[in-house]
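Retro notes
What went well: the complex prediction finally ran end to end.
Inputs used:
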Amino acid sequence: MKHMALRLAVPLLLLAGWQLLASGSAQAPRPTTVAEAAIAMLRDGDLLAGLATSLGRVFAGFAIAACVAIPLGIAMGSMPTVERNLDPLVETFRPIAALAILPLVILWLGSGSGAAIAIVAYAAFFPILINTISGVKRIEPSLMRAALTMGLTPLTRMRVVLLPAALPSILVGMRIGLGIAWTAIIAAELAVGAKSGSSGGIGQMMFVFYAYSIDLNGMVVCMIAVGIVAFALDRALRWALAITVPWSRI
Amino acid sequence: MSAPKIRLDCVSKSFGGSVVAVEKLSLDIRDGEFLAIVGPSGCGKTTVLNMLAGLEPLTSGTMTLNGKPIEGPGAERGVMFQDYALFPWRTVRGNVEFGLVYGPAGQGLSPAERTERVERTIEMVGLKGSHEKYPHQLSGGMRQRVALARLMASEPEILLMDEPLAALDAQTRVILQDELLRIWGQDRPATERRTVVFITHAIDEAVFLADRVAVLSSHPGRLKQIIDIDLPRPRGDATRRSGDFARLCQSIWELIREEAYRATMN
């Protein structure tokens, strides 16, 4: 009970401070005006539709990233030759931020969902890959040896020892990847929106508020919504982690 | 005298060309005997076990099992590792049945027979009621029992054990030594026992458990002497208190004392 009060105290204090500071200016968004805007946007369905579009793209891009990064990470983690040859390539691309490849992606894929999904896939790919590689490399050698001495075939060893042993680390990579994917989609939609304004999504809604209607309250509503969704996604993934890998303390 | 179960003939092992871990080791291991290998640290005893398990190739010499050369790991040689190597994502039951479910040891067993054997083995090591626990929920002694049950469930011909009791406290160790002998079958006729190769650095443990103790010297690992342990079976607390037991421990200690001191001082 005391914890709950403490937890609520900080956001409430921030809100009060915000209201106080903003009351000096007529245009500045205030908690009260933002709340009004939020209710209106929820009522006409725009906010949820925008979030749904963005989430759909995130899940699509994230799924593509996971399908490529996990098998590749397992190959790189378990076969030194593969790692030696691919590591320079990965480490060259990794510092190139998702936003830095945006112009190229828009030129190739246009300004619709395709481009947004590609950006998300690129952004989520690296954390999943890096964590899968380290997860595979950090497997206790004696676990693989135990499986060897019990006469398991290589394929069975991979399925019933390597994969579950690396799973906690793979899931951590997925959790980080999903967080980054969500950050990347907003940025991508903001940028894509600048070009056509036809792609939808929460990022593009923000762009419309910024460039056309100059609605500061609407922009703040979008920002808060983005934060809340990110928080919910992370909590959902943490929960999924706790039930899929109960033996692991991550 | 029947042919040896396992024969090591002039086996050498070096790492990276220069470090000689084991040098010209020749040793016959008899069917159904409990052989302990002791020696100061750095005598290559774990290397010998890994070679027997097929996890490490020999640099030179030959190693045969039932007359056939050992080339790689095989389910007929079960290994118990020093760190137990339990699968943390599998419960006690999941660990014990592992070799039967995924390895060749379970071939020809019906699901019912498999379950029966897993249950029996878990009960044998005294873990009844802990089936659904994960390794991280168990004490060191219980984990050691899980590892022993996993080894026994596959019923390998040869049991290779690498300091399995080293990580335990003194009381647990004594209790598990007794249980190990019971599970191995010291009450049964010698022909029904499995062949055990047991690595340890504890001389009293080797003397208490084994039929023969192979003493290795270090840097490089060479066979110094094989001591016959003629203490009567079944052995128990009375054995530990006997004069013969103390005498045997003392004679082995004298064999390795000098090297053990040297290893500690360096």
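What we learned: The radius of gyration of chain A is 22 Å.
What to try next: split runs per interface for comparison.
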